[in-house]
Prior knowledge:
The chain is an alpha/beta fold. It contains ten helices and 16 strands.
Amino acid sequence: MAEASIRIGILCCAEIARKVSRAITLAPNVTIHAIGSRSIEKAQKFAKENGFPPSAKTYGSYEAVLDDPEVDAVYMPLPTSLHVRWATLAAEKKKHLLLEKPVALNVKEFDRIIEACDSNGVQLMDATMWMHHPRTAKMKEFLSDSQRFGQLRSVNSVFTFGGDLGFLKNDIRVKPDLDALGALGDVGWYCIRSLLWAVDYELPKTVTALRGPVINEAGVVLACGSSLQWEDGKVATFHCSFLSNLTMDITAIGTKGTLHVHDFVIPFEEKSASFSTATNSTFDELVTGWATLPSEHVVTVDLPQEARMVREFARLVASIKGSNSKPEKWWPTISRKTQLVLDAVKASIEKGFEPVEIVS
């Protein structure tokens, strides 16, 4: 397929759409074709402020983007409560779908989205950007190395940031009618995905929410945590919050090695990212220091992770359009597993922190 052959429409002018609009501009095989908002004025303002190409169309409704015959795919950063309605409609209109996370309010809703995509032969991918950074593949190489890392025994993930008073009162992520999953759905999604990534997407047997979640007056989670248990003895924990300093950590511990990364969701720097590994760690003779020190690994990139995500999504869409390929099932499969665990954490909180068994 020729460069810039996939034409994307954007549904709504959410703040994250600014970042993804830039990513679409940077990706070599896709272009912004249209944006839709609830008002034409807002769509026009967004397009102007974010440097859309002159050819980009602006619409005063989401339906207009989906009805545009030249739109191949849509990026959907709508509030989670609107996903099932608009994602299923997009699929019925034969628009391939790049869907913001969390993908739905629960797995039952997401199954409706998957069914619509399957029935209409469209590609579905969630917008978990760090999955597309080359560092992620390099870290997986270490976790898969039986000599350097061994067998995974435990993994911990943290994603927190401190929302200001305006955020905690007004952001859609604290509103039960818009994003009812709160911090669990927003930052907790990344934590859960990282735990599943570390265990090759093997679902845990049980999930147990940690006591002491912070919940606002509207019933939306502002901070929470959970433990996950597997039948073979692997364990994992995570903590997510809108109330603590910005932190994005993964620690994975194996029988022979340890992986640390401190910026897994958004790297400290756009053009390079690092992680550290340790193998067969020991103390020195007098136990005054470590005899074997961790190694630092730096991965540089030519495109930021969000542009790599868009490029991969467009590649899959182009393959379906140009080569009659089938949609790639792996992406909706791992989205569904992430949603299943998220649902189990929520259920455990609601059941008084009892263990909840995962049933796929």
